[in-house]
User: Which sequence fits this backbone?
């Protein structure tokens, strides 16, 4: 995208703020995953944040860093580049949660594989993710595929649209 996707405004405010508001009913606390370069730019009023702690260029960094912050809780992970996401999909995900599984997730926008960036990761998966990273696996999707997870269909897969480049953003906004 060429810029911090969490600062793009789709709903009259930066996506980071929109998602914080959207997630508050589902989480005791909303945490932001940031890299070290983003920390200085955070406003004083920012929610708590987890700084990437691993030398891996993957969304897995934020997930593992969250478990390093608190390994005893489940983490609801939501990507900042899903501007269509609503409470309807979050309601479905939370209602389907199965704490006996390593994670509860939705099928991705293709309906074929788990969407690792809209997933409730249970505490039991933290050590598995760390071990798989040490073995060279960097894909959270592959790690989910290898684990005992619960996958549900989102009520509207259109909500899972990832806006990762300027062309997709322009098409979505028009």
Assistant:
């Amino acid at each position: 995208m060429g810029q911090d996707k969490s600062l793009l405004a789709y709903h009259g405010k930066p996506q980071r703020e929109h998602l914080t508001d959207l997630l508050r009913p589902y989480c005791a606390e909303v945490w932001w995953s940031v890299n070290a370069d983003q920390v200085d730019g955070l406003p004083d009023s920012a929610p708590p944040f987890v700084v990437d702690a691993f030398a891996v260029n993957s969304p897995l960094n934020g997930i593992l860093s969250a478990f390093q912050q608190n390994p005893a809780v489940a983490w609801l992970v939501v990507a900042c580049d899903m501007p269509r996401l609503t409470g309807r999909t979050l309601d479905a995900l939370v209602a389907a949660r199965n704490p006996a599984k390593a994670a509860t997730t939705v099928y991705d926008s293709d309906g074929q594989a788990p969407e690792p960036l809209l997933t409730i990761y249970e505490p039991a998966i933290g050590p598995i993710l760390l071990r798989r990273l040490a073995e060279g696996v960097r894909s959270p999707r592959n790690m989910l595929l290898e684990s005992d997870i619960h996958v549900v269909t989102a009520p509207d897969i259109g909500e899972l649209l990832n806006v990762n480049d300027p062309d997709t953003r322009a098409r979505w906004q028009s």
